From TrEMBL:
Keywords: ATP-binding, Helicase, Hydrolase, Nucleotide-binding. The keyword Hydrolase applies. One of its GO terms (cellular component) is cytosol. GO terms for biological process: recombinational repair. Residues 210-594 form the UvrD-like helicase ATP-binding domain. This is Superfamily I DNA RNA helicase-like protein. One of its GO terms (molecular function) is 3'-5' DNA helicase activity.
Length: 755
């Protein structure tokens, strides 16, 4: 059969599949409408039933079963409607491009069978055959992994062997095959070329049609407790973990939902950048948080220093102190310190109510001292919390009939009084005394809630002072903590928590109080691992004890510290995060940038020769050296203007925030220029100016490195920053310097072109 005939046959099949999809879309539309009507009806019924006051004071004690049931019914119908809508969206996507791959397999003794692979599975309308297999189906693994010949794939009954006789790739757009070819190896470069050559459209795309073999290993790993991925810039780490999340959700539908997965992302823009990948695969997004946001939530009331602020401030702690506070040793020291704590050495403080001690520190200390010696520290803390709550309940009972509460009751406006009644009304009581006692108790509970909260939140221990005591207790050879302690105290006084102290301080608090752990989370993903201290990672492992961890990053994109060899970073991590089943995967092929840009970027690194550029060509990085400020400004404006004529998104990346402000002052005359800050959550197109730490994980059509001079990037210590800047560019990179260009840029003239 000629190539043309083959193509015609395949197009006939595509046409047939699309007619089946059309039918199913009609059915799905009808089902969505019915479900919508049902939701409306249930909601209407619910609002009629839910008119009772839901703002209960004693919410823990009063639960209204009927309302709970109604609520469940509403959420079930809403969920049903959402599922149907999602199915409809999936069908609409398949209508455009039903699949991207085909494999032919032949089991021994059977006929050859053709299977088609796409973003979601599809059955024929009669529900007898699969027209398309989901890319996550076990058999689809062959498409990504296998070369022609005998191949294996997992089934519920164990590993199966079959013969892979054909592997075909398609590009289908608007129902038409635009490209089609056979390959005998893993997903071929031709399709990748097409996928990578196009212009950036702000948001990351799914890569399921072109997943590479090593990426597939990351995606389909279901057994490791700790999966570590070290990958060069642009090697598809983020892509791989997003498809991995989609894969995990698909395979554990019944037991795993997106809320049990959290991704620690480098910045807010990144969260927006990746927000479409999972929905495009029919899945809900996992939770996302930056480490700074996470810490701020844990230290309610304190301003936690962000890694950006720390980088900008430039005045860090003495190196040995910094090293210790970032290490696994500090966490072991915290554990040892907590073992030694007793009633005398815990920093108990009063719980106040209206400016006076309600429970005094000495009373709390006595309660602690009265707990059995054998009890663990956290059990002791729990025991005193229970004792305090019991005492508080006694106080509430007494207060209910006290003059101050009864006086307050008398002065209460009617609306407030109605709130206090809750579900009851005045008629429910047999006597006025009973009624007043009830209301008095409710009011006293209300008023003393602050005391309850203080007990519940462990505010009877001064955790910040306790941590200071911990620092004081450290006697380490060659490390003097005295200045660090003074600085720490001063920061706390101003409600600031220095970043270096955050993990050990939280760990200490959690080990004393036994709180803080989350056992619901099943998977934790940490991107940009090189920006986390080992202490911070140990803390995250502590609070998510049931979770499997996937940690990824690039030791060479080190913005905040010196570049480390990947092996050194990985060894440090796997030792400290002692996991039972560890898997380490390295990705060395870089997909984002043209060969010219990758070759230039990797030459800055001590270990760069391991990085393999993807074969997609463009022009050499352009270097523009300016002698004075005026020339520099003109060159910058000209360069950005030229790039803006060719590309949709151009980023001007700087080392610091001050430089980004400077760049913006020069460029704001250009249409579509925007200065981005740490608070921005949406990534626009146009001319974007920002410090590199906000561009972590992102990519742009063209990048201009702002002031790539020898003054700004003098030596190897700044290589991580310039490497990260250069590796954000997909198609074009320009470097402009005021004064002599950095030796990191000029040391290999064949990799650049001078203006
Ligand atoms: N298999 C693939 N098929 C198509 N595109 C891919 C593939 N792998 C990676 N890419 C593309 O390469 C670019 C870089 O991928 P990604 O951002 O996941 O890399 P990364 O390793 O997380 O990068 P960095 O560490 O530099 O932030 C993205 O545009 C992504 O879509």
């Amino acid at each position: 059969m000629t190539e043309n005939d083959e193509r015609q046959l395949e197009q006939t099949r595509v046409d047939f599949v699309i007619t089946q999809i059309d039918d199913q879309i009609d059915e799905a539309n009808a089902a969505v409408n019915t479900a919508h009507d049902e939701t409306r009806a249930v909601e209407k019924n619910y609002s009629a039933n839910a008119s009772v006051n839901l703002y209960e004071v004693d919410d823990a004690m009063d639960t209204n079963v009927q309302i709970q049931q109604q609520r469940q019914l509403v959420s079930r119908t809403v969920e049903n409607e959402t599922i149907l809508k999602n199915q409809l969206t999936t069908l609409q996507e398949l209508q455009e491009s039903p699949y991207f791959g085909r494999i032919n397999i032949k089991d021994a003794g059977d006929d050859e069978e053709a299977l088609y692979i796409g973003v979601a599975s599809l059955m024929n309308t009669a529900k007898t055959d699969f027209l398309v297999y989901d890319w996550r189906a076990p058999i689809a693994g062959i498409y990504y992994n296998g070369s022609l010949g005998d191949v294996e794939y997992p089934t519920p009954n164990g590993t199966q062997t079959t013969e892979l006789t054909k592997k075909r790739q398609f590009t289908i757009a608007h129902g038409q095959i635009t490209n089609m070819f056979d390959t005998n190896d893993t997903v071929g470069d031709e399709m990748l070329q097409a996928a990578l050559g196009s212009q950036n459209d702000q948001l990351m795309q799914n890569i399921v049609a072109t997943i590479q073999k090593e990426q597939n290993d990351i995606i389909r790993d279901t057994t490791s407790d700790l999966l570590l991925v070290q990958g060069a810039a642009g090697s598809g780490k983020t892509s791989a973990i997003l498809q991995r999340i989609a894969y995990l959700l698909y395979h554990s539908r019944a037991s795993l939902n997106a809320d049990q997965i959290v991704l620690f992302s480098p910045n807010r823009l990144f969260s927006h950048y990746i927000s479409e990948v999972l929905p495009s695969l029919g899945e809900r997004n996992m939770r996302q948080v930056t480490f700074a946001e996470f810490l701020t939530r844990r230290f309610e009331g304190l301003n936690v220093e962000t890694i950006f602020e720390q980088f900008e401030s430039q005045h860090g702690l003495p190196k040995p102190v910094q090293k210790f506070l970032a290490s696994a040793d500090v966490m072991t020291a915290v554990e040892n310190y907590t073992q030694s704590l007793s009633a005398e050495t815990i920093e108990f403080i009063d719980i106040d109510f209206e400016g006076q001690a309600f429970f005094t520190a000495s009373h709390i200390r006595q309660l602690f001292a009265g707990t059995p010696d054998k009890m663990s520290l956290t059990d002791k803390t729990l025991a005193i919390k229970n004792a305090l709550i019991k005492e508080l309940k006694g106080h509430i009972k007494t207060a209910a009939n006290s003059d101050w509460i009864q006086d307050e009751l008398e002065g209460l406006p009617t609306a407030k009084l109605r709130e206090l009644y809750g579900e009851h009304s005045a008629d429910d009581f047999e006597s006025e005394d009973e009624q007043l006692t009830y209301l008095g108790k409710r009011l006293a509970t209300n008023r003393l809630r602050v005391v309850y909260n203080a007990i519940y939140n462990n505010h009877f221990i001064d955790h910040y002072f306790q941590y200071q005591d911990f620092l004081n207790s450290l006697h380490l050879k060659n490390i003097d903590f005295s200045n660090t302690i003074t600085d720490y105290n001063q920061a706390i006084e101003f409600h600031q928590m220095p970043l270096e102290h955050s993990a050990p301080a939280l760990y200490l608090r959690d080990l004393i109080t036994g709180s803080g752990q989350n056992r619901q989370l099943e998977y934790v993903f940490i991107d940009e691992m090189q920006d986390y201290s080992v202490a911070a990672l140990i803390y995250l492992k502590h609070i998510f004890p049931k979770a499997k961890f996937t940690i990824l990053g690039d030791s060479e994109q080190a913005l905040y510290s010196d570049i480390e060899a990947p092996e050194v970073l990985l060894q440090r991590l796997s030792e400290s995060l002692s996991a039972k089943k560890t898997n380490l995967i390295s990705l060395n092929r870089s997909y984002r940038s043209t060969t010219e840009i990758t070759n230039f970027a990797k030459a800055m690194l001590p270990d760069g020769d391991k990085i393999i550029p993807f074969s997609r060509h463009g022009s050499l990085p352009k270097v523009i050296e300016c002698n004075d400020k005026t020339q520099f400004k003109d060159a910058l404006v000209n360069e950005v203007r030229t790039l803006a004529d060719q590309f949709e998104t151009i980023a001007i990346l700087t080392k610091t925030k001050a430089q980004a402000n400077e760049a913006y002052r020069i460029l704001r005359q250009l249409k579509n220029s925007k200065l981005l800050s740490a608070n921005d959550r949406v990534l626009p197109s146009g001319i974007l100016i920002m410090p590199i730490y906000l561009a972590k994980g992102l990519e742009f059509d063209a990048v201009v490195a702002y002031d790539a001079s020898a003054t700004n990037y003098p030596n190897q210590h700044s290589a991580g920053i310039l490497y990260t800047i250069a590796s954000r560019a997909m198609h074009q990179l320009s470097l402009i310097s005021l004064g002599e260009t950095s030796p990191l840029v000029t040391h290999n003239q064949s990799l650049i072109t001078d203006k």
